[in-house]
Each structure stands twice: as C-alpha cells, then as structure tokens.
Design goal:
This protein is mostly helical. Helices cover 81% and strands 0% of the residues. It has one domain (23-141). The protein is elongated, with a radius of gyration of 21 Å. It starts with a helix and ends with a helix.
Length: 145
C-alpha cells in the first residue's frame, strides 16, 4: 500500500513538472500577449501630450478633455492586461496605471484651475515614474536585458 502511494505521488510530481512553465517563460508570454511594449510607448506618448496640453493655459476645455480622455482610455486598456505572472511587476504596473488614470481624470477637470493642472501633472509624473520602474522590473523578470 505504501509503495503504491509513493508511486502515485512520484507520478503526480513528474506529471506536474512536465506542464509547468518557468517564471521567465510565463513573463515573456505575458509581455507578448499583453502588447506591453507597445502599451508602454502609447502611454508615455499620451502622458507627454497631456502634459503639454496642461502647460498651455489657453488650451480650450474641449481640447483638454480630448487629450485627457485618450490617456484615460489607453490607461484602462493597459490595466486590463493585469495581473502579470510576476507579483512585483503587477504591483508596480497597478501603481502606474492608478496614477495615470488619476492624472487623466484630474486633467479632464483642470481647464480653469492652475492648481488642478499642477495636481494632474504631479499624478502624471508619479505614474510615469512607476511605469518606468515597472518596465525595468519586467525586463528583469522576463530576462530580456
């Protein structure tokens, strides 16, 4: 009886090892399937465009709303790819997307207020910093650099 249980346990371990994928492989697969690299470029560009718009005091409310809405939609789209196979990457990306989403919402309501414009720019810089840190962590977790 003990031999059968031992054999069954060993067979289970061997079978589970056959189907397991390494954390590096899982992360590489996530990077590809989530289009992380292109999302990174898009979000950075959106944040840059929003920041430029926020710095123009004469920017119309309608134009500011459009630029900020683009940032929000792209941030929400990127956020939909979470979680990653790496917990630290997920935490960093979640922070980045939270701050970029907050920046987009603050930007949307900032047309007539220099203080709200400054707050949106601050949230944007926090989001971009977290996004940069997340990208570095993802490179490590996916062993790409």
């Amino acid at each position: 009886m003990i031999r059968r249980l031992t054999a069954l346990l060993l067979a289970g371990l061997i079978l589970s090892a056959c189907g397991a994928e390494s954390s590096v492989t899982a992360m590489r697969t996530w990077v590809t399937q989530s289009s992380f690299r292109s999302s990174l470029v898009v979000l950075s560009s959106d944040a840059h465009n929003s920041a430029k718009a926020l710095e123009i005091a004469s920017m119309s409310s309608a134009n500011l709303h459009t630029v900020c809405a683009v940032l929000l939609v792209d941030t929400e789209s990127a956020n939909a790819s979470l979680p990653t196979p790496d917990g630290q990457s997920t935490t960093l990306l979640s922070s980045a997307y939270t701050n970029l989403g907050a920046a987009a919402n603050e930007c949307y309501n900032a047309a007539a207020s220099p203080a709200k414009r400054a707050q949106a720019l601050f949230s944007m810089s926090k989001g971009l910093a977290a996004l940069s840190e997340a990208a570095a962590r993802i490179d490590v977790a996916a062993a790409t650099k």
